[in-house]
Predict the 3D structure of the following.
Amino acid sequence: MPPLLRERMYRKLQQTIQAKIQSLLVERYGVELATLVVELPPKIEFGEMALPVAFELAKRLKKAPRMIAQELAPLLAGIEGVASVDVAGAGYLNLKLDRGDVVKRMAADEHAAVGGAGFRLVEHTSINPNKAAHVGHLRNAILGDSFARMLKRDEYKPGWEIGVQNYIDNTGVQVADIVVGVTTLEGMDLDRVKEWMQELFESNQRLDYACWDLYARVSQWYDSDPALAVERKKLRIDTLHKIEEGNNDTATIADLIATGVLRRHLETMERLGIEYDFLPRESEILHLDFWNTARELMIAKGVLYFESEGKNKGCWVMRRAGVAPAGLGDGPGPEVNGELTPSDGPDEDAKILVRSSGTVTYVGKDIAYHLWKFGLLGKDFFYAPFHQYASHMCWTSTDKPTGQLPDGKGFGHADAIYNVIDSRQDDPQTQVKEALRGLGYEAESERYTHLNYAFVGLTARTAEELGYTLTDEERAKNFIEVSGRKGFGVKADDLIDRMIAAARTEVDARHPELEDAERAEIAKTIGVGALRFFLLRFTRTTLIAFDFKDALSFDGETGPYAQYAAVRAANIFRKAGVEAEAALVAVQSGDYAALLASEEGTSVWEMWLAASRVSTVLEQAIAAAEPAILARYAFQLAQQFNNFYHRHHILTETDETRKTLLLATAAVARRELVRVLGWLGIGVPSAM
RNA sequence: GCGCCCGUAGCUCAGCUGGAUAGAGCAACAGCCUCCGAAGCUGUAGGUCACACGUUCGAAUCGUGUCGGGCGCACCA
């Protein structure tokens, strides 16, 4: 069978039809359209594909749209897979597909391929390793993990080669704060810190939880005595510098705690099915001098220059993204004696990358790091194994040569990158892209996606439930912002525990006959599914006001609703004593065209039509970098299935032809639902 | 002050590159379990898509402005 005939489900059919019409338009009217819209009609009576192309042509051809549509309609009738073409409304071209044909193709699992060449790096989670993860971090990790699953090669799609990274800021101020906490507030030295961590471990206490409270205490402590505030802040900076330098007890304490907390984060995320391939650390970016290499590249290209005047005097700066330089000229003038002379006064808006003290800012380090990601820095990390997952190793960076290189290539050779980062960092992210552009890496800059999302707050109700006393001002707002400094927020592990416990209560009530271990497993799948779905159903720009009551609801538009539909479908096969696979094979022989065309069959056909859109929706979700699109689609599939389930009673169906089709319908619905949920990291339990 | 995001049903949100009577869930009300498990289904009610202009055959969608809310604009990360 030629490839064109093989891949002809919704997405493929759409592509074929678009190409055909484009050539028809050129042939007949000499018109070329940049894009040709093919949409899903609002009602099934209008067919499966609708083309508003006649409206578009009306103004160019100075003809009534309906007239154009009537001219085009007969020309489209010959397209393969199209059963009929109608002109509707003021000039819509509505296509009806050959239902019997589509059903057989889908039963054989023919679908458009999604994927491509190149290595893509997805970076997410990136929690400061100085305290427990909270809901906001979960949104980040779940978004990133789902997106990685959408891209990755699997049974359904060739996908892309990908690497999943979790950037570890193990030498930042937040880690410094926790070090100040254990040393100054708790009076520990290195040996005592080791003992303390051992004690926590032996008494089954979580290090990240202990740090959560300590971090809050330190943050308060800095400002608790105005007379000592300056001194205490100095202690903080001194501690930071010692950590950055390395090779001293302070740095060792920082490393012990940061690594210990990081291991806890990995445990927390693993509970949700989230794994990483590589953990690049800031300490190596410093010790391997990534910045100096980047710095030279940037100076050579004139992107980075020394400011000798104005408020940024003594700093190395670059033009701020999206802002014209403050001076009259187009940026800095020619370089003179190692310094660039501003063409027309200093650019006061410039972004500082190196402070007058000689230290590098966050954005500076980030530029170096991103040159590495694209393989443009000309140097690499050294790699060491860090954590063994069931199916693969998670690596970390190190500054000592190990002779080990994951997959023989490491990770710094991306063709495209996706950074899952809070939208409060839109500006610095834009600045990094601007630096790439300035260095002449236009293409890389284009393939740099900041997968941004609005932060997660808490509803007033949930904040009060956590024992937080609200001010009147806070009560009036739609959400309360979480604060690590105040130790205020919903810790990830606590939340996961509550989700699973809520599911467990239901499972125990519904399935007392099951073994304890199986009930536990089912509850975990449901609790995790509910949590992941809850954080995925909102589009990225939507600020989530987290509320326990909403999250713990398992009715309606939730993960458990979708899981339930898949479980119901599976139950049908169990009770019928038929394998889903066999049902899909069975539908190949037999003629269902008439049945599918009937009024009753249309409600069955709608299930197939919904299921046929998997590739289309996946492509759309990848293009928009928006897992919420898939989450909503999963819900729609489940809803469609529940409709179908109530309308057609399969097991009692006496007509064999009809029963075969109904069984195949349930099989397809379940297959696609399981797939889509899988990309969202949501499993389907054995029973519900 | 400048930049970015947002304003859609009582509440929480969808609405793709403009297109057919603006859609879900929750909450409310009325029904449906001797029938593939009711974490489900059916029905009712609920909207001047913040507002005003503009572009267009056509605007929730694009443009400008106003009002209201959020977030950024450090020699912090």
Residues 656-679 of chain A form the longest helix (24 residues). The first strand of chain A starts at residue 49 and ends at 51.
